[in-house]
Amino acid sequence: LPAAVLLKDTKLMDVKLGQLGSWLAMRDFTPGGILGAIRRGQERYYNKYINVRKGSLGGLSMVLAGYVILSYMWSYSHI
Amino acid sequence: VLHTTRPLHTTQQSLAPVPPLPEKGGEVRHGLIPEEFFQFLYPKTGVTGPYMLGTGLLLYLLSKEIYVVNHETAAAACILTVIVYAIKKFGPNVAAFADKLNEEKMASALAMKNDTIQTLQTAIEEEKKEQWRAEGRSYLFDAKRNNIAMLLEANYRERLLTVYNEVKKRLDYQVALQNLKRQKEQDHMIQWVEKNVVQSITPQQQKESIAKCILDLKALSKSAHAAV
Protein backbone atom coordinates (compact mmCIF):
# COMPACT_ATOMS: atom_id res chain seq x y z
CA LEU A 1 0.00 0.00 0.00
CA PRO A 2 2.26 2.80 -1.14
CA ALA A 3 -0.20 5.52 -0.21
CA ALA A 4 -0.53 4.55 3.43
CA VAL A 5 3.11 3.96 4.30
CA LEU A 6 5.49 6.91 4.12
CA LEU A 7 9.00 6.25 2.97
CA LYS A 8 11.86 8.48 3.94
CA ASP A 9 12.41 10.10 0.58
CA THR A 10 8.92 10.98 -0.64
CA LYS A 11 8.72 14.46 -2.05
CA LEU A 12 6.49 17.08 -0.57
CA MET A 13 4.24 17.10 -3.63
CA ASP A 14 3.54 13.37 -3.29
CA VAL A 15 2.55 13.52 0.37
CA LYS A 16 -1.18 13.44 0.99
CA LEU A 17 -2.66 16.13 3.17
CA GLY A 18 -3.43 13.89 6.11
CA GLN A 19 0.10 12.50 6.19
CA LEU A 20 1.65 15.93 6.36
CA GLY A 21 2.20 15.83 10.11
CA SER A 22 3.95 12.45 10.10
CA TRP A 23 6.00 13.42 7.06
CA LEU A 24 7.14 16.59 8.80
CA ALA A 25 8.09 14.59 11.88
CA MET A 26 10.18 12.27 9.72
CA ARG A 27 12.37 15.01 8.34
CA ASP A 28 15.92 15.52 9.48
CA PHE A 29 16.13 18.43 11.88
CA THR A 30 19.73 18.02 13.03
CA PRO A 31 22.07 20.92 12.18
CA GLY A 32 23.71 18.77 9.53
CA GLY A 33 20.31 17.94 8.10
CA ILE A 34 19.21 21.58 8.02
CA LEU A 35 22.45 22.61 6.35
CA GLY A 36 22.01 19.81 3.83
CA ALA A 37 18.49 21.00 3.10
CA ILE A 38 19.69 24.58 2.60
CA ARG A 39 22.47 23.36 0.29
CA ARG A 40 20.08 21.24 -1.74
CA GLY A 41 17.70 24.15 -2.13
CA GLN A 42 20.48 26.43 -3.24
CA GLU A 43 21.74 23.87 -5.76
CA ARG A 44 18.26 23.46 -7.18
CA TYR A 45 17.85 27.22 -7.57
CA TYR A 46 21.32 27.63 -9.09
CA ASN A 47 20.96 24.77 -11.55
CA LYS A 48 17.61 26.07 -12.66
CA TYR A 49 18.27 29.79 -13.07
CA ILE A 50 21.97 30.62 -12.91
CA ASN A 51 24.12 27.75 -14.23
CA VAL A 52 22.77 28.01 -17.76
CA ARG A 53 24.19 29.21 -21.05
CA LYS A 54 21.90 32.20 -21.58
CA GLY A 55 20.86 33.31 -18.13
CA SER A 56 18.11 35.86 -17.75
CA LEU A 57 17.59 38.65 -15.29
CA GLY A 58 14.84 36.77 -13.45
CA GLY A 59 17.34 34.53 -11.68
CA LEU A 60 18.92 37.45 -9.86
CA SER A 61 15.84 39.64 -9.50
CA MET A 62 13.87 36.89 -7.76
CA VAL A 63 16.53 36.70 -5.05
CA LEU A 64 16.50 40.48 -4.62
CA ALA A 65 12.72 40.61 -4.49
CA GLY A 66 12.72 37.87 -1.88
CA TYR A 67 15.25 39.87 0.13
CA VAL A 68 13.07 43.01 -0.11
CA ILE A 69 9.98 41.17 1.07
CA LEU A 70 11.83 39.43 3.88
CA SER A 71 13.35 42.65 5.18
CA TYR A 72 9.95 44.33 4.99
CA MET A 73 8.47 41.54 7.04
CA TRP A 74 11.22 41.81 9.64
CA SER A 75 10.95 45.58 9.96
CA TYR A 76 7.14 45.70 9.89
CA SER A 77 6.82 46.41 13.58
CA HIS A 78 8.95 49.54 13.22
CA ILE A 79 6.57 51.15 10.77
CA VAL B 1 33.07 5.21 8.31
CA LEU B 2 32.37 3.66 4.95
CA HIS B 3 28.73 3.07 4.08
CA THR B 4 28.79 -0.45 2.73
CA THR B 5 25.64 0.12 0.76
CA ARG B 6 27.19 2.97 -1.25
CA PRO B 7 28.09 1.81 -4.74
CA LEU B 8 31.79 2.16 -5.44
CA HIS B 9 32.53 3.08 -9.05
CA THR B 10 30.20 0.48 -10.44
CA THR B 11 30.14 2.18 -13.82
CA GLN B 12 32.82 3.90 -15.77
CA GLN B 13 34.07 7.31 -14.75
CA SER B 14 30.83 9.00 -13.90
CA LEU B 15 32.32 12.50 -13.83
CA ALA B 16 33.46 12.72 -17.42
CA PRO B 17 32.30 13.84 -19.88
CA VAL B 18 30.54 16.61 -18.04
CA PRO B 19 27.03 17.06 -19.41
CA PRO B 20 26.67 20.41 -21.18
CA LEU B 21 24.83 23.27 -19.51
CA PRO B 22 21.20 23.74 -20.44
CA GLU B 23 20.57 26.43 -23.00
CA LYS B 24 18.06 28.57 -21.16
CA GLY B 25 17.14 28.75 -17.49
CA GLY B 26 13.71 28.43 -16.02
CA GLU B 27 11.18 30.83 -17.46
CA VAL B 28 10.37 33.83 -15.29
CA ARG B 29 7.45 36.09 -16.05
CA HIS B 30 7.78 39.82 -15.42
CA GLY B 31 11.20 39.10 -13.96
CA LEU B 32 9.70 38.14 -10.63
CA ILE B 33 7.41 35.12 -10.77
CA PRO B 34 8.46 31.75 -12.18
CA GLU B 35 6.43 30.33 -14.98
CA GLU B 36 5.62 27.22 -12.96
CA PHE B 37 3.26 29.27 -10.82
CA PHE B 38 1.20 30.27 -13.85
CA GLN B 39 1.18 26.67 -15.11
CA PHE B 40 0.17 25.47 -11.68
CA LEU B 41 -2.93 27.70 -11.64
CA TYR B 42 -3.82 27.27 -15.32
CA PRO B 43 -6.03 24.13 -15.08
CA LYS B 44 -8.24 25.63 -12.41
CA THR B 45 -8.39 29.32 -13.28
CA GLY B 46 -7.24 29.72 -16.86
CA VAL B 47 -4.92 32.42 -18.10
CA THR B 48 -6.09 35.35 -15.98
CA GLY B 49 -6.05 33.44 -12.70
CA PRO B 50 -2.66 34.45 -11.37
CA TYR B 51 -3.22 38.08 -12.35
CA MET B 52 -6.52 38.13 -10.46
CA LEU B 53 -4.74 36.56 -7.52
CA GLY B 54 -2.03 39.24 -7.70
CA THR B 55 -4.54 42.08 -7.86
CA GLY B 56 -6.59 40.71 -5.01
CA LEU B 57 -3.51 40.19 -2.90
CA LEU B 58 -2.28 43.72 -3.58
CA LEU B 59 -5.66 45.31 -2.67
CA TYR B 60 -5.84 43.18 0.48
CA LEU B 61 -2.33 44.27 1.57
CA LEU B 62 -3.13 47.92 0.89
CA SER B 63 -6.54 48.00 2.51
CA LYS B 64 -5.53 46.15 5.64
CA GLU B 65 -2.42 48.34 5.85
CA ILE B 66 -0.17 45.33 5.90
CA TYR B 67 1.75 47.27 3.29
CA VAL B 68 1.98 50.86 4.57
CA VAL B 69 2.10 53.70 2.02
CA ASN B 70 4.68 56.24 3.13
CA HIS B 71 7.57 58.28 1.72
CA GLU B 72 9.50 55.09 0.92
CA THR B 73 6.70 54.01 -1.39
CA ALA B 74 7.21 57.07 -3.61
CA ALA B 75 10.98 56.54 -3.63
CA ALA B 76 10.51 52.88 -4.49
CA ALA B 77 8.10 53.73 -7.30
CA CYS B 78 10.56 56.21 -8.90
CA ILE B 79 13.52 53.86 -8.56
CA LEU B 80 11.60 50.91 -9.97
CA THR B 81 10.41 52.96 -12.94
CA VAL B 82 13.95 53.98 -13.81
CA ILE B 83 15.27 50.43 -13.38
CA VAL B 84 12.59 48.90 -15.55
CA TYR B 85 13.12 51.51 -18.25
CA ALA B 86 16.88 50.94 -18.23
CA ILE B 87 16.48 47.19 -18.44
CA LYS B 88 14.03 47.41 -21.30
CA LYS B 89 16.32 49.74 -23.23
CA PHE B 90 19.78 48.29 -22.61
CA GLY B 91 18.92 44.68 -21.83
CA PRO B 92 19.47 43.17 -25.28
CA ASN B 93 22.78 45.03 -25.73
CA VAL B 94 24.18 43.76 -22.47
CA ALA B 95 22.95 40.27 -23.26
CA ALA B 96 24.64 40.34 -26.67
CA PHE B 97 27.89 41.57 -25.12
CA ALA B 98 27.87 38.84 -22.50
CA ASP B 99 27.09 36.27 -25.16
CA LYS B 100 30.01 37.49 -27.24
CA LEU B 101 32.38 37.12 -24.29
CA ASN B 102 31.11 33.63 -23.70
CA GLU B 103 31.48 32.76 -27.36
CA GLU B 104 35.09 33.92 -27.37
CA LYS B 105 35.91 31.80 -24.36
CA MET B 106 34.23 28.77 -25.87
CA ALA B 107 35.94 29.33 -29.23
CA SER B 108 39.39 29.53 -27.67
CA ALA B 109 38.79 26.41 -25.59
CA LEU B 110 37.44 24.58 -28.64
CA ALA B 111 40.42 25.71 -30.70
CA MET B 112 42.78 24.36 -28.07
CA LYS B 113 40.94 21.06 -28.01
CA ASN B 114 41.03 20.82 -31.81
CA ASP B 115 44.70 21.65 -31.89
CA THR B 116 45.46 18.97 -29.36
CA ILE B 117 43.41 16.46 -31.33
CA GLN B 118 45.25 17.47 -34.50
CA THR B 119 48.63 17.11 -32.83
CA LEU B 120 47.71 13.69 -31.57
CA GLN B 121 46.49 12.68 -35.03
CA THR B 122 49.77 13.70 -36.63
CA ALA B 123 51.60 11.88 -33.86
CA ILE B 124 49.59 8.75 -34.66
CA GLU B 125 50.45 9.02 -38.33
CA GLU B 126 54.12 9.55 -37.57
CA GLU B 127 54.05 6.49 -35.36
CA LYS B 128 52.49 4.41 -38.14
CA LYS B 129 55.14 5.63 -40.53
CA GLU B 130 57.83 4.63 -38.06
CA GLN B 131 56.29 1.20 -37.77
CA TRP B 132 56.32 0.86 -41.55
CA ARG B 133 59.95 1.92 -41.56
CA ALA B 134 60.80 -0.63 -38.94
CA GLU B 135 59.46 -3.35 -41.22
CA GLY B 136 62.25 -2.66 -43.67
CA ARG B 137 64.98 -3.59 -41.27
CA SER B 138 65.37 -7.01 -42.86
CA TYR B 139 66.72 -5.25 -45.98
CA LEU B 140 69.07 -3.28 -43.82
CA PHE B 141 70.44 -6.40 -42.21
CA ASP B 142 70.89 -8.09 -45.58
CA ALA B 143 72.89 -5.13 -46.86
CA LYS B 144 75.04 -5.18 -43.76
CA ARG B 145 75.65 -8.88 -44.10
CA ASN B 146 76.69 -8.37 -47.71
CA ASN B 147 79.09 -5.64 -46.65
CA ILE B 148 80.69 -7.82 -44.04
CA ALA B 149 81.00 -10.73 -46.44
CA MET B 150 82.72 -8.47 -48.95
CA LEU B 151 85.13 -7.19 -46.34
CA LEU B 152 86.00 -10.71 -45.27
CA GLU B 153 86.51 -11.76 -48.87
CA ALA B 154 88.74 -8.78 -49.62
CA ASN B 155 90.78 -9.41 -46.51
CA TYR B 156 91.21 -13.07 -47.39
CA ARG B 157 92.35 -12.23 -50.88
CA GLU B 158 94.83 -9.68 -49.60
CA ARG B 159 96.35 -12.20 -47.28
CA LEU B 160 96.47 -14.79 -50.02
CA LEU B 161 98.38 -12.33 -52.20
CA THR B 162 100.78 -11.62 -49.36
CA VAL B 163 101.43 -15.30 -48.88
CA TYR B 164 102.03 -15.78 -52.57
CA ASN B 165 104.45 -12.87 -52.70
CA GLU B 166 106.40 -14.06 -49.69
CA VAL B 167 106.72 -17.56 -50.99
CA LYS B 168 107.79 -16.28 -54.37
CA LYS B 169 110.44 -14.07 -52.75
CA ARG B 170 111.88 -16.97 -50.83
CA LEU B 171 111.96 -19.18 -53.90
CA ASP B 172 113.55 -16.41 -55.96
CA TYR B 173 116.18 -16.07 -53.32
CA GLN B 174 117.02 -19.71 -53.47
CA VAL B 175 117.22 -19.58 -57.28
CA ALA B 176 119.42 -16.50 -57.19
CA LEU B 177 121.60 -18.13 -54.61
CA GLN B 178 122.17 -21.17 -56.79
CA ASN B 179 122.87 -19.02 -59.86
CA LEU B 180 125.36 -16.96 -57.95
CA LYS B 181 127.09 -20.01 -56.60
CA ARG B 182 127.44 -21.53 -60.07
CA GLN B 183 128.69 -18.28 -61.52
CA LYS B 184 131.24 -17.85 -58.81
CA GLU B 185 132.42 -21.40 -59.30
CA GLN B 186 132.71 -20.79 -63.02
CA ASP B 187 134.60 -17.55 -62.60
CA HIS B 188 136.87 -19.01 -60.07
CA MET B 189 137.61 -22.02 -62.23
CA ILE B 190 138.31 -19.85 -65.29
CA GLN B 191 140.60 -17.67 -63.31
CA TRP B 192 142.41 -20.60 -61.82
CA VAL B 193 142.81 -22.22 -65.20
CA GLU B 194 144.11 -18.96 -66.71
CA LYS B 195 146.48 -18.44 -63.86
CA ASN B 196 147.85 -21.89 -64.16
CA VAL B 197 148.21 -21.63 -67.89
CA VAL B 198 149.97 -18.30 -67.62
CA GLN B 199 152.22 -19.73 -64.95
CA SER B 200 153.01 -22.67 -67.11
CA ILE B 201 154.14 -20.50 -69.98
CA THR B 202 157.92 -20.20 -69.30
CA PRO B 203 159.75 -17.21 -70.68
CA GLN B 204 161.41 -19.43 -73.29
CA GLN B 205 158.07 -20.58 -74.59
CA GLN B 206 156.86 -17.02 -74.63
CA LYS B 207 159.75 -15.89 -76.88
CA GLU B 208 159.25 -18.79 -79.24
CA SER B 209 155.52 -18.21 -79.49
CA ILE B 210 155.99 -14.51 -80.16
CA ALA B 211 158.51 -15.23 -82.97
CA LYS B 212 156.12 -17.77 -84.48
CA CYS B 213 153.26 -15.26 -84.33
CA ILE B 214 155.37 -12.63 -86.13
CA LEU B 215 156.27 -15.09 -88.88
CA ASP B 216 152.62 -16.04 -89.22
CA LEU B 217 151.59 -12.45 -89.44
CA LYS B 218 154.13 -11.74 -92.15
CA ALA B 219 152.89 -14.69 -94.12
CA LEU B 220 149.35 -13.59 -93.75
CA SER B 221 150.14 -10.04 -94.78
CA LYS B 222 151.83 -11.30 -97.87
CA SER B 223 148.85 -13.38 -98.80
CA ALA B 224 146.58 -10.43 -98.05
CA HIS B 225 148.61 -8.11 -100.27
CA ALA B 226 148.37 -10.68 -102.96
CA ALA B 227 144.62 -10.95 -102.55
CA VAL B 228 144.10 -7.18 -102.81
List its traits:
heterodimer; A: 79 residues; mainly alpha; 3 helices; B: 228 residues; 5 helices; 79% helix; rod-shaped
In short:
Chain A: It is found in: Mitochondrion inner membrane. The complex is a heterodimer of chains A (79) and B (228). Chain A has 79 residues and is mainly alpha-helical.
What layout of secondary structure does this protein have?
The complex is a heterodimer of chains A (79) and B (228).
Chain A lengths: L19 H7 L4 H19 L8 H17 L5
Chain B lengths: L27 E2 L3 E2 H11 L3 H15 L7 H65 L1 H64 L2 H25 L1
Antiparallel strand pairs in B: 1-2
Note the overall shape of chain A: extended
Termini gap of chain A: 53 Å
Order of helices and strands of chain B: EEHHHHH
Specify Rg of chain B, calculated over alpha carbons. Answer: 67 Å
Summarize the helix and strand pattern of chain A as letters: HHH
* Most extensive chain interface and residues per partner: A-B, 18 and 20 residues
The strand count of chain A comes to 0
Largest sheet of chain A: none
